[in-house]
Amino acid sequence: xxxxxxxxxxxxxxxxxxxxxxxxAQPDALHYLGVLCHQRGRSDEGVNLIGTALRxxxxxxxxxxxxxxxxxxxxxxxxxEACYRRALAHGPQHYNALNNLAVVLEAQDRLEExxxxxxxxxxxxxxxxxGHYLMGMFLxxxxxxxxxxxxxVECFRTAYELDPRNVRALESLGVSLYALHRREExxxxxxxxxxxxxxxxxxxxxxxACGGAEAPPRANDDYVRNVFDSFxxxxxxxxxxxxxxxAPEVLAKALAGVLPPPAGDLDxxxxxxxxxLCGSWLRPYARRLTGVDLSxxxxxxxxxxxxxxxxxxxxxxxxxxxxxxxxxxxxxADTLIYFGAxxxxxxxxxxxxxxxxxxxxxxxxxxxxDERVDLTPSGRYQHTRxxxxxxxxxxxxxxxRIDSEVLRKEGGQPVVGWVVLAQCGHPSGT
Length: 430
Description:
Layout: H1 2-5, H2 9-22, H3 27-39, H4 43-56, H5 61-73, H6 77-90, H7 95-107, H8 111-124, H9 129-141, H10 146-162, H11 167-179, H12 183-196, H13 201-209, H14 221-231, H15 235-240, H16 247-256, E1 266-271, H17 279-282, E2 286-293, H18 296-305, E3 310-313, H19 316-321, E4 327-332, H20 343-352, E5 353-365, E6 373-375, E7 381-383, H21 385-394, E8 400-410, E9 413-423
Parallel strand pairs: 1-2, 1-4, 2-3, 4-5, 5-7
Antiparallel strand pairs: 5-9, 6-7, 8-9
């Protein structure tokens, strides 16, 4: 278990199996080996191992909770819910199971039940900072009135007071204040944060996002890395809460309309792969599927999915520039929303594609006919169609299809984005 907690999965798996050679029905070894197998992308094996452990110790709430986590992360929400309810039946004070139950109820759009579970969580575990943070996110994401956003402010304040390491709560506090048009208060949150930690890239970027400083041409690498490293463990959970998160699916279907039937013969780059949500869509087409991301935490999660032949912790533009004509497809789901200026990265994508190759990516939509890029209070950039069209032409993509699609919701409202699809010109220029 010490090796497992330290991240030495090879040693941990070897020792769990040694325990099971000595005693085949040792339930803790079965349970934790099951968790480890899921972490290594062998989720079915993990389910079977934890199921065996539960037949031996059927009233073990931690095992029921961890089995639920596997089902949740595999998208089997009803199975996950059943596991969390069993965990709570055998351990009514198991607040991690209650936390997870609230998440899957929200993911199933059972909002009243989810709200009740979050409320019970903060009552039952008032010192559990993450519970207050999740309640704040729920209130803001599903706000029915301005009072819900105001209540989210108090939740984020409490979460940060209980755990000053929870910078996501502080960042979310600023976003909620801005949403309430309390812009100076939002800016002051980030100024105070910068005063405490002047080297932290997150408050510097967010101060610019709420208008308190000049907007940079793109999000700083350290900002992106820090945000997503801290977000890695709960990234899929946050997306689960929003069943309308559609960017990977929408981009994959756009590509399916122009690529030949899947034959496993293309070299594909998932640019900004995150936890690997695009991997299962791209795998049938790929001879070699490479995931690239700045965040080491995200790369570790993507590794567990088992979809990729190679995973690289690297800055996206530099990676593409270093692989001229190295791939047939570049796909980038909700990654270029952290780029304001797109000129360099799109030129790098064109350079990385072989003649006839395809580029597919998503952006957030900025309204207006002018060429404009806006840094929004979320910390992400929005682009107008005119700007995207000009940069695509300048980057070598003579023709690009740019469609508007709802890619997810935020604050209870749909977020409309651009879905961009373009082909790298053939040597003949066609």
